[in-house]
C-alpha cells in the first residue's frame, strides 16, 4: 500500500466535513488538505495531489449563479479524472462526478434522510472493493437529488427510495450517494446547519429517530476505512 498519499478534499458546507476520512488519513499516515469552497476557491495543482475527495453539500449541481465556484469545481473534477487520479464523490460529490461524465442529475422522486438500507447490486460482486460488506447495509442518507449512471460504470448499491446509490469506474473512481463517513458529531452538525424544517415523506426520519440509530455509525466508518484501504492499493503505481 502506497505511503504518504497527498489527498485533497472539496468541502461545500461547514456541516459536511470529511468525517471519519480524516481519522483514516491520520492513522494511515497520509496528508489530507481541504478547499472550503464556502470560504475560498483556491484549488491545488493536479500534480500536487494523488486523490481528490468531493464531499456533500446542501446545494445542487446546477446552482452556479448562487455558487459560482461550482463551474470551476466541475472542471477540476473532470481534469482529475482525465489525469487518472483516484476520485471519490460522496452525496453531492457523486452527483458532480456523474455530471462531468455526461450522466443526468435530477430530483429523486423521494427525499431520503435518515438510516435506511441499501442493497448491493449483482454487478457489485465483479469487484473486490466491497468484499465482506454483506448484501444489505444500514447507511445514513441526506439527499433529494440523484443521478443516472455514467457510461462504463459498475453500479454498486440501490435502495427502495433511490435506484442508483453508488458506482465504480475502473478501479479509481467511486461515487456514493450515502454517507459511510458520517460521525456522531457530523450528524449533529447536519441538523445545526439545516435552515429549513425537514420535509415530510416515507423516507424522511425525525432527528430523534436518526440519533436513536447512531449505533450504526461505527460499522459504517469501518466500511469507509476498508473501502479507502482498497482504493489505496488500487492507486499503487
UniProtKB/TrEMBL annotation:
Pfam families associated with the record:
GATase (PF00117)
Listed GO cellular component terms? Answer: cytosol
Q: Which Gene3D superfamilies match?
A: 3.40.50.880
The Glutamine amidotransferase domain covers 46-184
Recorded hits in PANTHER family, A to Z, give: GLUTAMINE AMIDOTRANSFERASE YLR126C-RELATED
Organismal lineage = Bacteria, Pseudomonadati, Bacteroidota, Bacteroidia, Marinilabiliales
Q: Which protein are we looking at? A: GMP synthase (Glutamine-hydrolysing)
Highest taxon of the lineage: Bacteria
Q: Record's CDD domains?
A: GATase1_1
